[in-house]
Amino acid sequence: EDVKSLNFIEHIIEEDLRSGYAKDDLRFRFPPEPNGYLHIGHASSICLNFGLGLRYNAPVNLRFDDTNPTKEEKEYVDAIKEDVAWLGYTWDQECYASDYFQQLYDWAEELIKKEKAYVDSQSSEEIANQKGTPTEAGKESPYRNRSVEENLKLFEGMKNGEFEEGAHVLRAKIDMASPNMLMRDPVMYRILHKAHHRTNTDWCIYPMYDWTHGESDYIEQVSHSLCTLEFLPHRELYNWFLDQLVDSDKLRPKQREFARRNLSHTVVSKRKLLQLVESGAVEGWDDPRMPTISGLRRRGYTPESIRNFADTIGIAKRENVVDVSLLEFHLREHLNKIAPRVMAVLNPLKVVITNYHEGKEEWLDAENNPEDESAGTRKIPFSRELYIEQEDFREEANRKFFRLKLGGEVRLKNGYIIKAESCSKDSSGNITEVQCSYDPKSKSGSGTEESLRKVKGTLHWVSVPHAITAEVRLYDRLFTDATPDGHKEKDFMEFVNPESLTKITGYLEPSLQNAKVGDRFQFQRLGYFNVDKDSSDEKLVFNRTVTLRDTWAK
Ligand code: ATP
Ligand code: MG
Ligand code: MG
């Protein structure tokens, strides 16, 4: 394989394999905190870690980083599992940092015994005030030199619930003058009298991220612990904690960093997405306008399109914003291959074929997918009264208008050539009906000379008496700005697009009557649509997943 096509993380792994790692040593993990739903940014991390698992035939753990009971919930754990599985990945072990609480506690006691950790009884404010600045050393806590016995006793008291929240913390004893602020005696444990979604009230002290993450990697024997760039300064602390524990016959995990992925016209931060949900700006985490995996799924995205997007943008060493149109490009590319074509009219204008017998109907053959012969054909009804789109008819238009105009001809997709003869209007001048004649010999696919006659413009349509109705939800960008959270003077919520959702009634060919939740279609000339979960036996609801590129028959 071409070495140049490897990303920089793969280069690191290749180098490790050359310098002593066995293939069996490789193990990865995806470590979400269950404090929200996964979003498109997480998809990059998921595809990176699970992609490495596939490339090196190595196990990948799904690890829940669940050390903060105030924000974490079982609902989020379940949603995360569903989303990772839907993206097409299989994890080796399902792990929880909370499963390691006892082990972490025991190791913390060891650190105390080695005089590498102490109980500080100052307030968090006092501790913050002593941190110093990057250019000025911090001040040591007056409790820094407590005896091992006293520390052990206090730490046990913390665990046993003898103290209020904030009364004490456990801190690592490292270096209050370190140029890396994170090394200035970081907090390892705080008291929280909160029930945890898994350990309930077993614990009232909870370990901090830095103390938990590397140790969890070590317990699981993860070889490469990949995280986003903001953790680069944490690497030194990650290594310091491992130094206190690592057994020489066990594998020592490595933290390596890659850039966070941002997507234009949206926000990718669970905290901000939660704000959208709680403010009512959207209807939930899986609202089809949300950049969450569950929102994209409900909108009609395919796992393939998201994986292809993530693979195309790859991983980077510097943060940037990827344009949402690239995600949509991959979506269209996949849907074009798999989505059956159907006809639906969203802004109906009635067409009456005056020389077609009243009461007569025909069932015409229609190809399901020109990109996929195996998709077969179906029958669609034709009758004297049809709907076309309002914008497909004008009384008068110039030569570049390849749709229907008075005296002009168009082909009805899968049907006949029609000619507009006259139209009717209401009292305010709006066109209410177009009267047309049709050429009975021009039926598509009939092989006659007339059927092969070329006319400029092909329109989609549905038969009025056969059409079924559905609620169709049209989406626009959720934010009016390309980087809603990139403004210092304005909050991202100010850019929420008040017109991001429009609900209309659509008229659909009757084959769609049996469409199931999640089914995806191309409504010809309009875009890709899927059946929303709000559908019931009484009412079909469609989401517009994405519009077509406007190239066909405009
Ligand atoms: P958020 O700010 O949305 O809460 P997070 O990083 O705190 O994000 P985690 O649940 O800790 O969320 O993320 C799990 C993994 O996904 C981490 O390794 C994290 O670095 C990675 N990740 C999160 N957001 C992105 C992103 N936008 N691009 C790439 N990786 C991401
Ligand atoms: Mg995190
Ligand atoms: Mg977070």
TrEMBL record:
Residues of the Glutamyl/glutaminyl-tRNA synthetase class Ib anti-codon binding domain: 339-439
Ribonucleoprotein listed as a keyword: no
Enzyme class: ligase
Molecular functions (GO terms): ATP binding; glutamine-tRNA ligase activity
Region called Disordered, residue ranges: 122-144
Example of a GO biological process term: glutaminyl-tRNA aminoacylation
Compartmental location: Cytoplasm
Protein name stated in the entry: Glutamine--tRNA ligase
InterPro entries to which the protein is assigned, alphabetical: Gln-tRNA-synth, Gln/Glu-tRNA_Ligase, Gln_tRNA_ligase_bac, Glu/Gln-tRNA-synth_Ib_cat-dom, Glu/Gln-tRNA-synth_Ib_codon-bd, Rbsml_bL25/Gln-tRNA_synth_N, Ribosomal_bL25/Gln-tRNA_synth, Rossmann-like_a/b/a_fold
SUPFAM superfamilies, sorted: Nucleotidylyl transferase (SSF52374), Ribosomal protein L25-like (SSF50715)
PANTHER family: GLUTAMATE--TRNA LIGASE, GLUTAMINE-TRNA LIGASE
Binding residue positions for L-glutamine: D65, Y209
Taxon lineage: Bacteria, Pseudomonadati, Bacteroidota, Flavobacteriia, Flavobacteriales
EC number from the UniProt entry: 6.1.1.18
Motif ('HIGH' region): 32-42
Taxonomy, superkingdom: Bacteria
